Amino acid sequence: MKKEYDLKEKWNLIVDLLSKKFNDGQILDIEGIIFLIGVQELGKPTLKFSKDQKIDLMHIAICKLLEPLGYYRFDYVDNQGWPHYKSIAKLPNLKSGEQTILMKEAIINYFIEKQLIE
Predict the structure, then answer these.
(1) How far is the CA of 13 from the CAs of 46, 86, 87, 92, in angstroms?
(2) What is the DSSP string of 38-102?
(3) What is d(CA 87, CA 2) in angstroms, rounded to the nearest whole number?
Protein backbone atom coordinates (compact mmCIF):
# COMPACT_ATOMS: atom_id res chain seq x y z
CA MET A 1 0.00 0.00 0.00
CA LYS A 2 2.85 2.42 0.83
CA LYS A 3 4.47 1.75 -2.56
CA GLU A 4 1.22 2.60 -4.35
CA TYR A 5 0.94 5.81 -2.34
CA ASP A 6 4.55 6.79 -3.11
CA LEU A 7 4.01 6.03 -6.80
CA LYS A 8 0.87 8.16 -6.91
CA GLU A 9 2.46 11.00 -4.94
CA LYS A 10 5.59 11.12 -7.10
CA TRP A 11 3.57 10.75 -10.30
CA ASN A 12 1.36 13.69 -9.31
CA LEU A 13 4.46 15.75 -8.51
CA ILE A 14 5.88 15.10 -12.00
CA VAL A 15 2.56 15.81 -13.72
CA ASP A 16 2.18 19.06 -11.79
CA LEU A 17 5.77 20.15 -12.45
CA LEU A 18 5.63 19.49 -16.19
CA SER A 19 2.09 20.75 -16.67
CA LYS A 20 2.99 24.10 -15.13
CA LYS A 21 6.24 24.40 -17.06
CA PHE A 22 5.20 23.17 -20.50
CA ASN A 23 1.42 23.15 -20.77
CA ASP A 24 0.17 26.39 -19.16
CA GLY A 25 -1.00 24.43 -16.14
CA GLN A 26 -3.27 22.12 -18.14
CA ILE A 27 -2.74 18.56 -16.96
CA LEU A 28 -0.41 16.55 -19.18
CA ASP A 29 -1.20 12.91 -19.81
CA ILE A 30 1.37 10.13 -19.85
CA GLU A 31 1.83 10.39 -23.62
CA GLY A 32 2.63 14.11 -23.31
CA ILE A 33 5.19 13.38 -20.61
CA ILE A 34 6.78 10.63 -22.72
CA PHE A 35 6.97 13.09 -25.63
CA LEU A 36 8.73 15.68 -23.42
CA ILE A 37 11.23 13.06 -22.27
CA GLY A 38 11.91 12.25 -25.93
CA VAL A 39 12.57 15.91 -26.67
CA GLN A 40 14.89 16.07 -23.63
CA GLU A 41 16.80 12.99 -24.77
CA LEU A 42 17.13 14.32 -28.31
CA GLY A 43 18.59 17.49 -26.86
CA LYS A 44 17.15 19.73 -29.57
CA PRO A 45 14.16 21.57 -28.18
CA THR A 46 12.84 22.52 -31.60
CA LEU A 47 9.32 23.84 -31.41
CA LYS A 48 8.08 22.09 -34.55
CA PHE A 49 8.35 18.37 -35.20
CA SER A 50 6.69 16.42 -37.99
CA LYS A 51 4.17 13.72 -37.09
CA ASP A 52 6.79 11.03 -37.80
CA GLN A 53 9.36 12.86 -35.68
CA LYS A 54 6.89 13.04 -32.79
CA ILE A 55 6.44 9.28 -32.99
CA ASP A 56 10.23 8.86 -33.11
CA LEU A 57 10.60 11.10 -30.04
CA MET A 58 8.16 8.96 -28.11
CA HIS A 59 10.06 5.84 -29.19
CA ILE A 60 13.34 7.37 -27.98
CA ALA A 61 11.72 8.15 -24.63
CA ILE A 62 10.26 4.68 -24.22
CA CYS A 63 13.63 3.08 -25.02
CA LYS A 64 15.40 5.40 -22.58
CA LEU A 65 12.81 4.74 -19.87
CA LEU A 66 12.95 0.96 -20.29
CA GLU A 67 16.74 0.78 -20.69
CA PRO A 68 17.40 0.48 -16.92
CA LEU A 69 14.93 -2.40 -16.80
CA GLY A 70 16.99 -4.33 -19.35
CA TYR A 71 14.67 -4.12 -22.34
CA TYR A 72 16.76 -1.75 -24.49
CA ARG A 73 20.40 -0.76 -24.82
CA PHE A 74 21.67 2.52 -26.23
CA ASP A 75 23.34 1.80 -29.57
CA TYR A 76 24.47 5.01 -31.29
CA VAL A 77 23.60 8.56 -32.31
CA ASP A 78 23.07 9.01 -36.04
CA ASN A 79 24.56 11.82 -38.12
CA GLN A 80 21.46 13.97 -37.47
CA GLY A 81 21.84 13.63 -33.71
CA TRP A 82 19.03 11.13 -33.12
CA PRO A 83 19.76 8.38 -30.56
CA HIS A 84 19.10 4.77 -31.49
CA TYR A 85 18.51 1.81 -29.19
CA LYS A 86 18.61 -1.95 -29.62
CA SER A 87 15.97 -4.21 -28.18
CA ILE A 88 17.75 -6.72 -25.94
CA ALA A 89 14.83 -8.40 -24.17
CA LYS A 90 11.26 -9.05 -25.10
CA LEU A 91 8.74 -6.88 -23.28
CA PRO A 92 6.34 -8.86 -21.10
CA ASN A 93 2.72 -9.26 -22.12
CA LEU A 94 0.99 -6.78 -19.83
CA LYS A 95 -2.56 -5.57 -19.59
CA SER A 96 -3.16 -1.89 -20.33
CA GLY A 97 -3.22 -0.89 -16.66
CA GLU A 98 -0.05 -2.87 -15.97
CA GLN A 99 1.68 -1.13 -18.90
CA THR A 100 0.68 2.24 -17.49
CA ILE A 101 2.07 1.36 -14.06
CA LEU A 102 5.33 0.12 -15.60
CA MET A 103 5.73 3.34 -17.59
CA LYS A 104 4.84 5.57 -14.63
CA GLU A 105 7.43 3.79 -12.48
CA ALA A 106 10.01 4.15 -15.27
CA ILE A 107 9.22 7.86 -15.63
CA ILE A 108 9.51 8.38 -11.87
CA ASN A 109 12.88 6.60 -11.88
CA TYR A 110 14.00 8.79 -14.80
CA PHE A 111 13.13 11.96 -12.87
CA ILE A 112 14.86 10.66 -9.75
CA GLU A 113 17.96 9.78 -11.79
CA LYS A 114 17.96 13.28 -13.34
CA GLN A 115 17.59 14.66 -9.78
CA LEU A 116 14.41 16.52 -10.68
CA ILE A 117 12.51 14.87 -7.81
CA GLU A 118 13.52 12.85 -4.76
Answers:
(1) 25, 31, 30, 28
(2) HHHHHT---S---HHHHHHHHHHHHHHHHGGGTSEEEEEE-TTS-EEEEE-SPPP---HHHHHHH
(3) 33
What CA–CA distance (Å, rounded) separates 85 from 32?
21
Q: For residue range 6-26, list pLDDT tens digits in order.
A: 889 999 999 999 999 888 879
pTM of the entire structure? Answer: 0.91
CA-based nearest residue to 88, from 104, 59, 110, 66: 66
Cα–Cα distance measured from residue 31 to residue 22, given in angstroms and rounded to the nearest whole number: 14
Beta pairing partners, 87 = 72
- In the DSSP assignment, the letter for residue 13 is H
* Phi, psi angles (nearest 5°) of residue 92: -70, 155
Nearest-CA neighbor of 94 among 106, 86, 84?
Answer: 106
What pLDDT digit, counting tens, does each position of 22-48 carry? 888 799 999 999 999 999 999 987 668
